[in-house]
Write a structure and sequence with these properties.
- This protein is of the alpha+beta class and 173 residues long.
- The protein has one domain.
- 19% of the residues lie in helices and 47% in strands.
- The strands form two sheets. A five-stranded antiparallel sheet has the order 3-2-5-8-9. A four-stranded antiparallel sheet has the order 4-1-6-7.
Length: 173
């Protein structure tokens, strides 16, 4: 009798154990893909006088570095947001270093205009930011490059579709 009760109890436990073991993967509707498109335009003077490094958040949420090869730089990054995931941050910052040899001019027009377009399955929103804007003479060029460096621009994207600019966004190198 003890053996039968033990076997019955073992079968009940096994049945309960198997019903509790489900698929740990989220269902098809539990995650959504959110994305951001980064776009930055630079004045030719800025590219002529400074080495520009773009520090941006990539598809994995990691910091990545790139250098513009023309007056316009664009990158689209996407990430999946799960049920209990915190909002996703996207963004970039620009770092400038004055070149050792650059064209000798009286004045330089230094501009960098940035755009970030956030997208979810239910919404999209675009933000623009002037990251550098000024005309400076040769004597103030180095100071203008240093002051304009490390300007960051970011957004926060929520799973339910809300997209906001993030004024506190920072990227650390």
């Amino acid at each position: 009798m003890k053996k039968t009760l033990f076997t019955l109890a073992a079968l009940m436990c096994m049945t309960l154990g198997l019903t509790a073991c489900g698929d740990d993967n989220d269902g098809p509707n539990d995650g959504v893909t959110v994305s951001a498109t980064y776009e930055i335009s630079f004045s030719q003077d800025l590219l002529d006088v400074a080495e520009v490094t773009i520090v941006y958040v990539d598809n994995k949420g990691q910091v990545n570095l790139d250098k513009p090869t023309s007056n316009r730089w664009t990158r689209k990054v996407s990430r999946e947001v799960k049920n209990k995931a915190v909002p996703v941050e996207f963004g970039y910052k620009l770092v400038y270093a004055l070149k050792s040899n650059y064209p000798d001019k009286e004045n330089y027009t230094l501009t960098a205009e940035g755009t970030i377009k956030g997208e979810t399955p239910s919404s999209s929103r675009q933000f623009q930011e002037t990251l550098l804007n000024g005309q400076v003479g040769k004597s103030r060029l180095e100071n203008a490059i240093e002051r304009g460096s490390n300007k960051a621009f970011g957004i926060v994207v929520y799973k339910e579709g809300r997209i906001e600019q993030n004024p506190l966004f920072t990227v650390f190198i």
